[in-house]
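Researcher: For the annotation table, I need structure tokens for Beta-barrel porin-2, OmpL-like. bbp2. Please keep the output clean. Sequence:
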Amino acid sequence: MQKITILNCLSTFIIASLCLLFGRDAYSLDLGVGDWRAHGFASQGYTYTTGNNFFGNSQKDGSFDFREIGINVMGHVYPNLLIAAQGLYRNAGGSDTDNFRLDFANLDYQLPLNNKSTVGIRLGRIKNPFGLYNDTRDVIWTRPGVTLPQSVYFDALALRQAMISSDGGLIYGHHAIGEHAFNAEFVTANPLDNTGGASEFLTGHANAPGKMTGRPLFVGRAGYQWKEGRFRLLFSIVDLDRDFKSSSPAVSSGSIKTLYPLASAQLNLEKWSFTAEYGQVILERSESLTPDGAAFKNTSESFYVQSEYRFAPAWTALLRFDAFFANIHDRSGKKSAQLTGLPKHNFFAKDITFGLRWEFARNFLVAADYHRIHGTGWLSPTDNPQLFQGSEGDANWDLITVMFSYRF
């Protein structure tokens, strides 16, 4: 078995300490000032793969390099003004090595216009409103499985930190008409694209020294829901226009534009939930950032369909098909392989997932997912350097993820 690191021991100690400190029946910690409360969670994961690596060196004995520990506080300083912040420790192998970070911290002012309509503004480090899960993805309790669909949410490509939050402002509105409700949110903010693997993804250069600058990030999301979420429709879009300022003569500076529209739908019944999301990432790079000196434009395609079945009070089963194609005009990867010399399966991934979760006590959860995957299109290049160094890797592989979590 792989060696137990000091960090693994520390994580186990923290999880055990939280359990003893807050007890099995605690949902939050009253801070004793107004309505201020603290919530927290500690989750330890295990990943095993039959080929390739996911969240660490997951082949052979598997990897314990997947953990999330967070604490957040929130409360009102005035009736309509809420303050909320969360600190997070996260490790996910080569996909996330930033460890400690401020996940979000913001002021939220809400103004009811009448008993049907509300508007508000949020300032600070805010969660980006995108899709069904992006602004609730920080803890496994709000995810349908151990991991989110990688075709849409890109954890393994080290984009989690850049996707989940940004520094700026968000305006929002809500209007209800009987059993129908309409929501809209708009963000203008400085993206966190100098963290994790965001700059590598945008520039196409691994470990490129330099800094992203340029205009703010724009994110918008509009939605409709019926019967307080029984049925939901959402449309989200990310608009990013950035300049890469290189600090090395080996890599040129250049500009990048990214547009990411995403359509989402969900139906929630008493025991069943059905979910689907479809998106495309339209990426443009200037001539200076491409090896052949020609402007680069590419559209990728991402989608998944998912069902959840709550077959007992504490048990939920999951079935999902998830697909990613790096080039919408080359779903087989054949043309991209000829141009780059890389394996065809580097340019797509198709994932069938079977999951099971058990909330075996009030504040405890254990979840496990089995993935049968064809392709390696969303795998981390840090965890899998062989895929980008002429090796064929494993086109067909299995992934098992297990996570134990406690929250208060």
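Researcher: And a one-line annotation?
Model: DSSP finds five helices and 18 strands in the chain.
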